[in-house]
Write a structure and sequence with these properties.
mainly alpha
């Protein structure tokens, strides 16, 4: 019985349940209308930050595994990577739903696309859609693994637009929260690229 409980707690199902439970208050809040302007801003800020944090967690796993190859926790995180990725999309969908609650007119939505903040957010969300839809074993088989991986790398493009979306949304140049969230990711991804280039150069040197 104890082993079964441990296996369940380590499973994708358990993580899915936990992340779903955290989303419930936001979903309830969506139906708790009307909102004040302050409630609307808080909702967008909180759901946006949840989505950004889950995206950062998803992207941090690979570079951290290069640094800490023997970490059992990071091996577990790597197995849960798709769950974190899917819930990045889930929370960004809730974030977008909050936007639509206050901007239900098609004319308003189209007009808002002239704002860089809104446009960058839409681009990131549109990139997330095919990534979330193909985050399953069947898609991996149909796309033969390598093609699936290449497509999933588009998440890095989405991450850039998320940063731009957040930066443009901060008034009075309050960029510190954005930098706090994304600087560790930028540093570790830089290390990952350096490590790859270094290993590639070493292989070429050995071959020569």
């Amino acid at each position: 019985m104890r082993d079964q409980i441990i296996r369940f707690l380590n499973s994708r199902t358990a993580l899915t349940i936990v992340l779903s439970l955290f989303a419930i208050p936001f979903i309830i809040e969506l139906f708790n209308q009307p909102w004040t302007h302050r409630q609307y801003n808080h909702f967008l800020r909180d759901t946006g930050e949840w989505s950004a944090r889950l995206l950062i967690i998803t992207l941090l796993i690979s570079p951290l595994r290069i640094l800490f190859k023997k970490s059992g926790f990071l091996c577990w995180m790597n197995r849960q990577k798709r769950v974190f990725g899917i819930f990045t999309f889930v929370y960004s969908s809730i974030h977008l739903a909050g936007y639509f609650v206050e901007n239900s007119s098609a004319g308003t939505v189209i007009a808002d696309l002239t704002e860089p903040m809104v446009l960058f957010g839409w681009i990131a969300f549109l990139i997330f859609i095919p990534l979330a839809m193909t985050s399953n074993n069947m898609s991996i088989r149909l796309m033969k693994g390598r093609n699936w991986k290449n497509m999933q790398r588009a998440v890095y493009i989405a991450a850039v637009f998320i940063v731009l979306h957040w930066l443009w949304g901060e008034r009075h140049l309050h960029w510190i929260p954005v930098l706090i969230h994304f600087t560790p990711l930028a540093v570790l991804e830089g290390y990952r690229i350096w490590n790859y280039l270094n290993r590639h150069h070493h292989r070429n040197a050995v071959t020569a």
